[in-house]
Write a structure and sequence with these properties.
Layout lengths: L7 H23 L7 H17 L23 E3 L9 E2 L2 H14 L8 E7 L2 E8 L2 E7 L5 E3 L2 H4 L17 E9 L2 H13 L8 H9 L4 H4 L5 E11 L7 H11 L8 E3 L2 H13 L8 E8 L2 H7 L1 E2 L2 E2 L2 E5 L4 E13 L5 E12 L2 E7 L3 H7 L6 E5 L7 E5 L24 E3 L6 E3 L6 H12 L11 H9 L14 H5 L6 H14 L1 E3 H7 L7 H11 L2 H6 L2 H4 L7 H12 L1 H12 L3 E3 L14 E5 L7 H10 L3 E3 L8 E4 L5 H9 L2 E3 L1 H10 L5
Parallel strand pairs: 2-13, 21-22, 23-24, 23-25, 25-26
Antiparallel strand pairs: 1-6, 3-9, 3-10, 4-5, 4-7, 7-8, 10-13, 11-12, 14-15, 14-17, 15-16, 17-18, 19-20
């Protein structure tokens, strides 16, 4: 069969589409600044696919259509690295890092400070990408450092891996080293879909990335949210690269590679220690997992003089953070009851130091999670703790299971009030049916009602709530407003002054807003934003209480599930009675102005970063939301304004790169005062 002759205009159009789509990928994956809407990108890609279908000779290795994945492999071929991929030595405290710097300066016979490049150590899979004449020829895993596996077919599916390098001056042969990882958001979505499909979920983002890269069917890899971040080079032929590591990375970025926006230069080792401390503080806010910082002597000439020892370079050191995963023994399982009646299994553990603290309890989530893990009492389990996140059991070390391991029995009756535990079809959570009869639910409901984002009752802490319920002084949230001074002073550790302060705080809390009141009621799935949207839509409580599920779905961001919970809550007689009791006690609010579309900041996305000194972060967020703004946690091309306080880091840098409006706290306060807020 003879191929059709390709008209010149078709060939030119195919090349034009290549360039448009390649630039769109670079803007989206590398710069985080998409210029082309998804719908337009899809149209251009379909147009190119049609051209290539009609004229197969137009298909090239670097075509954007060739990322989708090919037929499955039977196995991975071995690859020998031209330049070994060495591992790094580790430091675990400041003294070890200072000792590394001393060795560097001793070997260089220098008393002057050494400049270092600082990069977050992504928790992913090390990869080697070989480009010849600017085209991706091969991708390989690190393996043992000398020999890895050829995973080119899988890596080609990753959008942030350039198939052809941008711009001129590309070396004839260029080997790029980088880390393939899975962002936290992508990992959460992947596990959510797996759980919904009844499939096994991944333990952590690193395991998910590794499993995705080692798929023999690259069409599976293509569906996984993987990213590449370049951190260095190996073999280079036919060009001279810059003489400093940070400049090499910036050059890689210009050629089409994503590099880490947290990369920095440190003038000396003390600056490295400060960098490690600062990044450690913001570690949990990063959109990806890191397990430490890599410090490299920045000057390439000094790197060459320092050389290597065994399997590691003398010029680099990984300063690790405390481990976020450890093994320990599951001693027992207890069941706790939450505000909405959810019965949650809690693992009682042999204490273990993980994530910087000693952990003795961890969540097991629900019955489905226990079955998925296959965990038993007596098992050795892997515990994960990330920052302030509740520690959780993520896997079982089955090889260490003792012969007397016991099956976990989920209760059929509430461990607090003995009411039946009920399960709703399609819902993983089992719930106590006792409602406010259950003292555990009553305690949690009152704690939520009094919390800062709800009625903000100062001085009513968790322990006092438990004491009031246990002493029989409090049977409902409305009962808070009927507490007497005489009752309170009789409580243990409650003096006359503390009791009066609490009564004053209760009186002060009666003057609230409708969004805060709705949030305080503790309706399932109604958080701050939903409560605010409901208040804006209905203006007052009465029409909201009478609304049916269909009309509730007309509210912004309210879907069928939330609408059902809201309608169901207001139809319950005890909820109606409690609301009336609260109003009779004097709880009141001003009507909300209906219709969020006319609010001054409607449709705008704001981001808060750094330390705010006059307002707390949550107060600033509340003010902005009351003006109609959406307050996001990360900066993107859709962000309208960034409010930056002292200590603002990568979000501020990204805002400047994208040309986004930036204001400080004083400017924010001035704007809020202009809008009528008394601050």
């Amino acid at each position: 069969m003879t191929n059709k002759k390709i008209p010149a205009e078709k060939r030119e159009r195919a090349q034009e589409l290549h360039e448009i789509l390649q630039r769109a990928n670079y803007q989206y994956y590398v710069l985080d600044n998409p210029e082309l809407p998804d719908s337009e990108y899809d149209r251009r890609l379909r147009e190119l696919q049609e051209l290539e279908r009609e004229y197969p000779e137009l298909v090239t290795q670097d075509s954007p259509t060739q990322r989708v994945g090919a037929e499955p492999l039977s196995s991975f071929a071995e690859v020998r690295h031209e330049v070994p991929m060495l591992s790094l030595d580790n430091a675990f405290d400041d003294d070890e890092l200072l000792e590394f710097d001393r060795r560097v300066r001793d070997r260089l016979n220098s008393k002057d400070p050494v400049e270092y490049a600082c990069e977050p150590k992504l928790d992913g899979i090390a990869i080697s990408l070989l480009y010849r004449d600017g085209m991706l020829e091969r991708a390989a895993t690190r393996g043992d450092g000398t020999t890895g596996e050829d995973i080119t077919q899988n890596v080609r599916t990753i959008g942030s891996v350039p198939l052809r390098l941008l711009h001129n001056g590309v070396p004839k042969v260029l080997e790029v080293r980088g880390e393939i990882y899975m962002p936290k958001a992508g990992f959460a979505e992947l596990n959510k879909k797996a759980a919904e499909a009844g499939e096994k979920t991944f333990v952590n983002p690193r395991n998910a990335a590794a499993g995705s890269l080692r798929q023999l069917d690259s069409r599976i890899t293509a569906k996984r949210p993987l990213q590449l971040c370049a951190y260095g080079v190996g073999l280079v032929e036919g060009a001279t690269l810059p003489d400093r590591h940070t400049e090499i990375l910036k050059q890689l970025n210009r050629w089409g590679f994503r590099i880490n926006s947290e990369m920095a230069e440190a003038r000396d080792i003390q600056a490295c220690i400060e960098y490690h401390k600062k990044l450690g503080e913001k570690r949990e806010q990063l959109p990806y997992d890191i397990d430490g910082i890599v410090f490299k002597v920045n000057e390439i000439g000094l790197q060459r003089r320092l050389g290597f020892v065994a399997r590691a370079p003398r010029w680099a050191m990984a300063y690790k953070f405390p481990a976020q995963e450890e093994m320990t023994e599951l001693l027992d399982v207890e069941f706790q009851v939450g505000r909405t009646g959810a019965v949650t299994p809690v693992a009682r553990l042999k204490p273990v130091f993980v994530g910087g603290v000693t952990v003795s309890n961890a969540t097991l989530h629900n019955r489905d999670e226990i079955e998925r893990l296959g965990v038993k009492i007596g098992d050795t389990v892997v515990i994960r703790r990330a920052g302030d996140v509740i520690p959780q059991v993520v896997s079982v070390v089955e090889s260490k299971r003792p012969h007397n391991a016991r099956t976990i029995e989920f209760p059929t009756h509430c461990p607090v009030c003995d009411s039946p535990v009920e399960s709703t079809p399609g819902e993983a959570v089992a719930r106590c049916s006792g409602g406010l009869i259950c003292s555990a639910q009553r305690k949690q409901a009152i704690k939520h009602f009094a919390s800062r984002k709800a009625m903000d009752i100062d001085g009513l802490g968790d322990k006092l709530v438990e004491q009031l319920v246990d002493e029989g002084l409090l049977h409902s949230v409305s009962g808070l407003y009927h507490l007497s001074l005489a009752e309170l002073v009789e409580l243990e550790r409650m003096g006359q002054k503390s009791a009066q302060n609490l009564l004053d705080a209760l009186e002060h809390s009666k003057d609230t807003t409708l969004p805060k009141f709705l949030y305080a009621l503790g309706i399932r799935e109604v958080g701050e934003a939903t409560a605010r949207n409901l208040a804006r839509h209905y203006g007052e409580l009465e029409p909201l209480m009478q609304a049916d599920e269909e009309s509730l779905q007309e509210v912004e961001d309210v879907g069928p599930v939330v609408a059902h919970f809201v309608a169901e809550f207001f139809q319950q007689s005890h909820a109606q009675e409690e609301i009336e009791a609260l109003r009779q006690a004097g709880v009141h609010w001003a009507p909300e102005e209906q219709g969020g579309a006319e609010q001054p900041l409607s449709g705008q996305t704001w981001v808060l970063t750094g330390k705010l000194e006059t307002l707390s972060r949550s107060e600033a967020k509340d003010y902005l939301q009351r003006l109609g703004a959406k307050v996001a946690g990360s900066v993107s091309a859709n962000t309208g304004t960034v409010v930056a306080g002292p200590g603002a880091g990568s979000k501020l840098n990204k805002a400047r790169e994208l040309g986004i409006s930036v204001m400080d706290e004083e400017e924010l306060l001035a704007m809020l005062r202009e809008r009528g807020f008394e601050i």
